[in-house]
Amino acid sequence: MSAATVPQPGAPAVDAVRRANEEATMRALARGDAVLAKWIQDRVLVDTNAVAHAWNISSQAVHAARKRGEIFAVWANGKHWYAREALRFERGKLARINRTLGDVDPSSKLLFFLRQHGALGGKIVADAIAGGNLDDVLRLAGNWART
Fold first, then answer.
1. Low-confidence ranges of the chain (pLDDT < 70)
2. Phi, psi of 80, rounded to the nearest 5 degrees
3. Which fold has domain 43-146?
4. Which pTM value belongs to this model?
5. What are the Cα distances from residue 143, in Å, to 50, 71, 100?
6. Count of CB atoms within 10 A of residue 102's CB?
7. Distance separating alpha carbons of residues 70 and 91, to the nearest angstrom
């Protein structure tokens, strides 16, 4: 019997673990897609046209702003979706926050904008900015980017 045909001890167990991990990953992706679909339906995420209208610019200018890192987008259903929450404050402030968050994935950036932060007195980012706490938000964004 050659080495290639000798059954490896534990191979079925390794295959079972691999299959279980693949199945768990598929279930997690399906849950993520369902959440994104709900956020789109509930307008937590808005399309390029909504951003263009809010900022009084063209759709092309929105895409350029995304490429420059001034705004972030989540990719779903074959297109970019933007956090409606991020449109509550001035573009320059959004750009500073987004750039401070750096290479954090778009879903984590979205959560940063949506959740209440203890470091902001239990406020969400937009409310903290409205209260004049941009420096606190930027500090928190820097910490968020390092975690």
1. 1-11, 17, 20-33
2. -85, 140
3. Multidrug-efflux Transporter Regulator; Chain: A; Domain 2 (1.10.1660)
4. 0.74
5. 30, 19, 9
6. 13
7. 8
